[in-house]
Amino acid sequence: MILSIPSPTGGGSASAAPAGANPRSEAERDGQVIGYSVAGRPITAHRIGTGPLKVVLVGDIHGGFEANTHLLAQQLVAHFQAYPAEVPANVSLWIIPTMNPDGLAAGTRWNAHDVDLNRNADTDLDGCAGNDWSPDTVGLEGPHPGAGGAYPFSEPETRAIRDFAADAWIAVFYHSADAAIYGDTCQHHLPTARLVAILSKATGYEVPPHGWTSYPITGEFGDYLSGEGVAAATVELTDHKALEFERNLAGVTAILASADEIVSAEAEQASAEYRWLSTGAEANTGVWHYPDGTFVHPEALEVIGNTAYLLDGGRVLALDLAEPAQAELLLAPGDDVAGVYVLEPLDLAAAGSGTLLILDRAGDVYRYEPENGTWDVERYGRSSGETSDHYYVALANEGTNRYLLETTHERVWRFHSEEIGSAWAAVPRGRDVDIGAAGQDTYVLTRAMNNPTGALIRYRNGQQAAGFQPAKDVTLMHPRQVHATESAVYVLDRAGRRLLALDPLSGRPQALYQFSDRRAVSTLWAGSAGEVILVGRDALYFYGRPERQATEEGEPSAAGRQAYDPDVLESLRGLLVPIDGAHFTSRDFQAPGAPRHYRLGVHEGSDFYSSTAGVTVNRSTKVRAVADGVVVRAMVDYTPLTSAQAQAWAAEWQRLGYTPPEVLDGYRGQQVWIEHGGGLVSRYAHLGSIAVGIKVGTSIKRGQVIGTVGNSGTPESLNGPSGEVHLHLELWLGDHYIGQFMRPIETREWMEKILQ
Question: Which residue among 551, 586, 619 closes a domain?
């Protein structure tokens, strides 16, 4: 397949200098600083070429005993700086001589088992089960305490490489000394497979048939990046002394010449079109830019007539598609719809050509008629009762049928107007993401329980349709949205970096769409005639309409750091899990944003129970601070909940139809709040006790014990201190909790990255 690579658009991060990377040494002036080591040494990247396809080479993964890979990388830098014309016009080649300058400086004074200098590049977030160096697991020749874990890459050096490679198309890591080439082992990522094959042919290194041969870890960075859509491989040199420059130069040259072939491998195998999205000099996509903060990370988009309805930050916005104009606010949390208090809009669906449906996290469905501007309640979902744990995560409409995707019980429910019928279809066990409908068919997008692999299922008359196999040709990863039309089913995956158009009957890929700079969008809409509109931060993209170019002037509409902004969430990664050995809850109903039917409200935090946190949680379990900070609230004189107080609270939320803030605060029980800077506050609720010395103004260190787990404030506490014992942790940024205004699957994936 021959691709026409568009010119750089300026939207990528390849040329953007990282914050704080001002030159301060000769080493820094030699290349662009992308991060710093534990000891403050710079990690530099050298760029040759200006094309949109970013290719990254990383030498000296561990440092010291692998200094030969550092020398190889230096030789490659010198060669391509001397012969820059060898880098094709469509490529930007970045070479990082070492990712571990501290280990390199130590030289032969350490080995791979020196925990202080080793840089762990392994993670259990790569979707490959059973290949991780978990804490205290035996690695190469001895224990690696603290290695592995959910946080991709526990040290600043490896985090810097991870983030720098996030918008790369191809990444190669140099290692010693198996004389082989390794790609991912479980993602079955075709661009990675093509990269490995090209490298092997050019260098003569073999590709082992079954993973690593000398130790149990498989791909390190390779596995993780393949899951993120980057073609990634590790080259093992022959031994610790040989530089093998010529054969590895041949490998790099082959990669550069075949970059477009590697990137388009999935489309080629599926006989699908590969469509670049370009807004630059050779644009095939129009773009309308809006003022900063107009919409930060939209969750849903529907088009009715000449108006686009966009859901962002819990707000429903109307955008004129005839000509660019400022967004009109239609609905927001706290508004009233026919006497119902709006909690948080979660999804949109168009019903016919003149009605907009809005799903609330509480399970309500509101109806808006654009023609006359009227609002009504299509379905009231807050009367399910105290024991209900239904969690409706997505909404779709076709004809007179409304569909709700319910994740707790893995069901699709069909309803007409206010009455919900019986479960229409059963969904295989997984993480339910989105639902779409067109004609006679309904499509459910899911993700695996414990890895980022996605699946798309087609239903007709409530039964799963045979012969629909999109995974046969392409692997879905980090799925986000499905939008169905009668001519194509569109799936947004790779966390918004890729759009697939699939045949509605077979699932065979028709086309793959991506921006050449790998920028992400967060939602889409497609019309029956093939129109495609994508939405990113403050921008609408019109595929196939390059003439639609506009910039709407105006003042920023959102000030400060937003709790659902991916850039802000990225900065929070690496907070400590507050209970030793625990992980983020395995149950969606215990995650931030889930409904709380018993009090007509929404859950604002993460629960840590024995049954879902991976460890035993009881009244003696210690609660630890997620980061350094200062105590801003400590209820050391807490008075336990009484039956009279509980009855008064229930009467209040029943009267209002939602849980007011003061009642919700009471339900949290005994609490400690810690302020961490930058507007971030962690709240620890339902505590059984608060540690001695914890009071307002106390400085706290990451991991410091602040109390013990309990059940204070919960209705179960009225029956004694032992029922429903768990920790409820909330992370707040300003006035909003982390997990608010995001799809449930996004909340899960971000919380798994943030809490480590």
Answer: 551
How is residue 348 written in tokens? 């949109």
What is the dihedral angle through the alpha carbons of 156, 160, 162, 163, rounded to the nearest 10 degrees? 130
CA angle 434, 589, 568 (to 5 degrees): 70
pLDDT of residue 472: 81
Q: Judge if the upstream peptide bond of residue 177 is cis by omega within 30 degrees of 0.
A: yes
Report pLDDT for 400.
86
Q: Which of 234, 263, 292 is the last residue of a domain?
A: 263
Do the beta carbons of residue 696 and residue 633 sit within 8 Å? Answer: yes
Backbone angles phi, psi at 624, to 5 degrees: -115, 150
| Shared domain check, 183 and 113 | yes
Q: How many Å apart are CA 186 and CA 200, to the nearest integer? A: 19
**Residue entry with tokens 């692997």:** 475
Residue whose tokens read 């077979």: 506
The reply to whether 523 and 590 lie within a common domain is: no
How many other C-beta atoms can be found within 10 angstroms of the C-beta atom of residue 86? 16
pLDDT in tens, 108-156: 544 545 555 566 666 666 666 666 555 433 333 333 333 344 444 567 8
Q: How far is it, in rounded angstroms, from Cα 681 to Cα 702?
A: 13
Count CA atoms within 13 Å of residue 71 on its CB side. 15
Distance between CA atoms of 168 and 171, rounded to whole angstroms? 7
Domain count, the chain: 3
Residues 6+ apart with CB under 8 A from 172: 55, 56, 57, 58, 195, 199, 232, 233, 234, 235, 251, 252, 255
Q: 137 is written with which tokens?
A: 């697991």
